[in-house]
Amino acid sequence: MTELGVLPAEASVLVNARTATSFSSRPVSEEVLRQLYDVVKMGPTSGNCSPARFVFLTTPEARERIKPCLSPGNVERAMAAPVLAVVCHDPLFFEALSRLGADDTLRDWFAADVGLSEETSFRNGTLQGGYLILAARMLGLDVMPMSGFDAFSLEDTLLAGKGWRANFLLGLGYPAENVPHPDHAPPRAPRLSFEEACFCLS
């Protein structure tokens, strides 16, 4: 048992890590991205539906393809990331349910309800995007989440024929050499207190 007020070392991926503002020039290999996905895919989703899909843009040329889709404030940051991950979800995730060990009847249930399948894929795909952030930090990568982009334009550019929906972007890379130690970094932005954000029912 963890003593009250004493956090395990694993909590540092949230407590101590900061959103990246720059990255090292060190490339992120496909082997690392495969290892990253192998961690992410083990996180729980409802009914093991696993709707998240990820597009990793690993070259300047690939990132340039979506430059017109980005909000002006995100262009420089997105282009500078060694890898830009597009976190997507597949509304037709239910076509793989039989291979994922789900009840055979679930496929037809989701197929008959477009609203339910979209809601389920978005919710669980977002959850898996959160796992990607945590897993990247555990593997020594820095992460820069971004949401400023035209999703429909990006989908037309990258996802034509796949049917995937774009949710948010993540810049991924190794920490920049000039990043200050957490003890010397600027103060973190405030967060809501437990009393403001939570309540317990008994």
From TrEMBL:
Top-level taxon of origin: Bacteria
Gene3D superfamilies named in the record: NADH Oxidase
Residue stretches making up the Nitroreductase domain: 18-174
InterPro entries: Nitroreductase, Nitroreductase-like, Nitroreductase_HadB/RutE
Pfam families the record matches: Nitroreductase (PF00881)
Official protein name in the record: NADH dehydrogenase
Lineage, top ranks: Bacteria, Pseudomonadati, Pseudomonadota, Alphaproteobacteria, Acetobacterales
